[in-house]
Amino acid sequence: MRAGVSTASLFERQNNEEALSLLNGLGIGVAEVFFTSFSEYGREFGELAAKGKGGLCVHSMHVLNTQFEPQLFASHPRVRADAFGWLEKALAGGRALGAAFYTFHGTARIKRAARSGERDDLTALGKNLRLISEFCAVRGIRLCLENVEWALYNRPGVFRAMTGECPELLGVLDIKQARLSCRPYSMYLKEMAGRIAHVHVSDVDERGRICLPGRGIFDFPDLIRRLADTGFDGPLLIEVYKNDFSRPEELKESCDYLSELVDKYG
Questions:
Q1: Helix, strand, or coil here: 242?
Q2: Helix (H) or strand (E) holding 228
Q3: DSSP state of 72
Q4: Which of 31, 33, 69, 232 is most deeply buried (CB count within 10 A of its CB)?
């Protein structure tokens, strides 16, 4: 295991090409790139951003979900084709940066019935996911479904159903999103065990506000021990919001905190 940072933590503070250079300058070794606009999809932008990353390893890519991911599941041929066109561009940008994994949200559960899952056709969703996974694999990137309270994997059981139809699927464990779903992260961890590509980590204070790892009350030693027990050896990627810390240097301090715990408990 090793600690790193998602550029989502610097959203609206630094553009991605600047954020990668900043993280490299801070001595952070691994990162996820969070593409945030259509202008950032494509090989050209990926190559531009790669110029400033130095020795930083870009482990994974992420996109602003609602821009095209839900439309990959659309029944309308034109809508679906356009969505796959944007997916191809996004993947090209990710590959130019060296990303091997794609943090994926999938459908957006906007309506109440969608949140409950009462109308889910998990078999059909899994088959669609297999097509998306195969599309990504041909382009050199593994698809990783993240537990997200308002998206496809919003409750335990969904991931197991998806892997039944899409055997190559990997997972991303998000601690914050597990909390928002009002379920213990251990339920998602158990379901994804052996298939976790990386983990999105954040801390929470006594008032329930998100903060950097090491600044709150979350039990990171327990998380690291549980991950180690599953054989996980991937990155712990810090993903917080821009107002959850003051100085960029605090990201490095938080990475160092996690690294010490990994050495001790991992």
A1: helix
A2: helix 220-229
A3: G
A4: 33
Two structure tokens written together for 40: 């950032």
How many CB atoms neighbour CB 137 within 10 A?
A: 12
Q: How many Cα neighbours within 13 Å face the side chain of 146?
A: 25
pLDDT digits (tens, 9 = 90+) for 86-134: 999 999 999 999 999 999 999 999 888 788 888 899 999 999 999 999 9
pTM score = 0.96
128, 73 contact by CB (below 8 A): yes
Nearest to 57 by CA among 26, 29, 17: 29
CA dist 92 and 42 (Å) reads: 5
Which tokens in the block code for residue 245?
Answer: 């810390």
Q: Confidence band (pLDDT; 50, 70, 90) for 10?
A: very high
Burial call 174-211: b when 16+ CB within 10 Å, e when fewer: bbbbbbebebebeebbebbbebbbbbbbbbbeeeeebb
Residue 193 is encoded by which pair of tokens? 């065990």
The alpha carbon of 2 is separated from its chain's Cα centroid by a whole number of angstroms, namely: 16
Enumerate residues 6+ apart whose C-beta is below 8 A from 122: 158, 161, 162
The residue among 179, 167, 171 whose CA lies nearest residue 232 is 171
Give per-residue pLDDT as tens, 170-202: 999 999 999 999 999 999 999 999 999 999 999
Residues 6+ apart with CB under 8 A from 89: 41, 42, 43
Look up residue 74 and give its two tokens. Answer: 């659309």
CA distance 16 to 38: 13
